[in-house]
Amino acid sequence: MQQLPILIKDKFFKYLNGSEPITEFEPWIYQTKVLEDILSKDDYLYLISLDFSNKWVKYKIDNILRRYIDLGEYETWKLKHLLFAFINEDGNPQQLLDDIYDLYYDGYYFLESLGLGYELCLESWADLSRSQELDSFLQRARGEAQEVLSWLETNKIVIKTAHDDRNHFSVIDTRTEKEKKPTWYKLAKFSNRQQSQPWWKFWG
Questions:
Q1: How confident is the model at residue 12 (pLDDT cuts 50, 70, 90)?
Q2: Is residue 187 a contact partner of residue 140, using CB atoms and an 8 Å limit?
Q3: Do 21 and 112 share a structural domain?
Q4: How far apart are CA 58 and CA 41, in angstroms?
Q5: CA atoms within 13 A on the CB side of 76
Q6: Residue 107: CB partners within 8 Å, gap ≥ 6?
Q7: What does the pLDDT average to over 172-196?
Q8: Domains of the chain: total
Q9: Domain housing 22
Q10: Structural domain contains residue 201
Q11: pLDDT in tens, 45-94
Q12: pLDDT of residue 119
């Protein structure tokens, strides 16, 4: 597979991820002449001849772009951006953790602590009686997200294009046994719901 220039790859990823609106992507296609050298002649001519007002055009563009990217690299890019958004408080924390939870059940089991433990606890954040407790919770969760990000950055976790027998992306996991050990069980404990204190508390 041809290695795409970084700016082209980033543009493809943003479009596929939905963060690049088609109204901006269309003029970029016409203006970026280097695409003629990157794409096959047939794909390039097909792309610039598309009717961008057609309701199915997004799927047609997706089919072309996916031929020129490494899907494992794209999945890694998406996950990094999701983690960055959560760490930098860019978006609703509940929704972002919901998205991470979905990835855990899609086979990214290295997200167990963040996607399972923290997400399930955050579902009950309306029960938290003090905002200070919520802030402390989110601070810990962001620390967990930062650790996952470091695994991706150092290639301790590598998402591959090939799929496993469950049709999930294959993951190469070279973390240490200590890093693989779940930490979310330390997060909370249930207390007597009849008592006045919250049903969970942080452990040191």
A1: very high
A2: yes
A3: no
A4: 20
A5: 21
A6: 164, 166, 168, 169, 171
A7: 68
A8: 2
A9: 6-68
A10: no
A11: 999 999 999 999 999 999 999 999 999 999 999 999 999 999 999 988 88
A12: 74
pLDDT, mean of residues 12-31? 95
CA 142 – CA 149 distance, rounded (Å) = 10
Note whether residue 31 is domain-resident: yes
Which residue type does 77 have? W
- Tokens for 107? 């086979």
Dihedral in degrees, nearest 10, Cα atoms 154, 159, 161, 166? 160
> Could you tell me if 51 and 101 lie in one domain?
no
Q: Tell me which of 27, 49, 68 is where a domain ends.
A: 68
**Residue type present at position 32:** T
Worst-scoring range by mean pLDDT, 39-43, 64-68, 129-133, 191-195?
Answer: 191-195
Tens digit of each residue's pLDDT (9 = 90 or more) over 98-153? 999 999 988 899 999 888 877 777 766 555 545 667 777 888 889 999 999 999 99
Q: Is 50 helix (H, G, I), strand (E, B) or coil?
A: coil
Residues 127 and 93 in one domain: yes
**Do residue 21 and residue 45 come from a single domain?**
yes
- Distances in Å between the Cα of 203 and the Cα atoms of 77, 119, 136, 138 are 33, 17, 11, 14
**Sequence-separated (6 or more) residues with CB below 8 Å from residue 21:** none
Asked whether residue 155 is assigned to any structural domain, the reply reads yes
> In terms of domains, do 61 and 83 share one?
no
- Whole-model pTM above 0.85? no
Whose CA is closest to 204, among 186, 189, 192?
186
